[in-house]
Request: fold
Amino acid sequence: MLRLTFADYESLRAHGEETYPHECCGILLGNNDSAGNSVKQVIRAGNTRSDSAHNRYHIAPEELIRAQREGRKAGLDIIGFYHSHPDHPARWSQTDFEEAHWFGCSYVITAIEQGQARITNSFLLKGTSEDEKAFEDEALEIDVTGVEENVASHAAKMSVDVREGDKT
Ligand SMILES: [Zn+2]
Reply:
C-alpha cells in the first residue's frame, strides 16, 4: 500500500503533463511502516537522460543524495520514485525493472496520453538482492482529507480508473 495526499498525487501527475512528450521523474520522501509506504514529500528531479528522454529516465546521484539529506533533517526516508510514460501504459518496462535497485521502495508510473495524465500505478520492489528482486502491484491510497467536496469526488472517480486500468 502506498499512501499519499491528493495534492502530492496531483503534483506528480502534473509533472508528467508538463514534461510531455518527455518523461518526468522524481523522488518520494516519507515513512515506511507495517501498512506500507506513506509519502510526505514529492521532490521533482531533472531527467538527466538526454539520449532518449521519451522512454528512459534517470535521477542524478547528486539529486538522490540531496533528497536523502533533506529528508533526514525532517525524519523522512526515500520510500519511492515516480516517472511518467508518455503515450505508453502505466506498467513497468524491462528497463524500469533493470534500473530499480531500492528494495522496499514504491515505483510509481503515470501514463500520459497526448499530454493528459491518465492512469497512475504503483509497484513495490520486493526482495533483498538483484537475483531475487520482483515488482509487485501496489494499491494506492489517496488521502482526500481537507480537499473540497467536488475535488474529492473527482479523486474517487480517478481511483476507480486506476483499478479498471489494471485489468486491461
Ligand atoms: Zn518507465
Notes: The chain has one domain: 2-167. The domain at 2-167 is CATH 3.40.140.10 (Cytidine Deaminase; domain 2). The two ends are 21 Å apart (CA to CA).
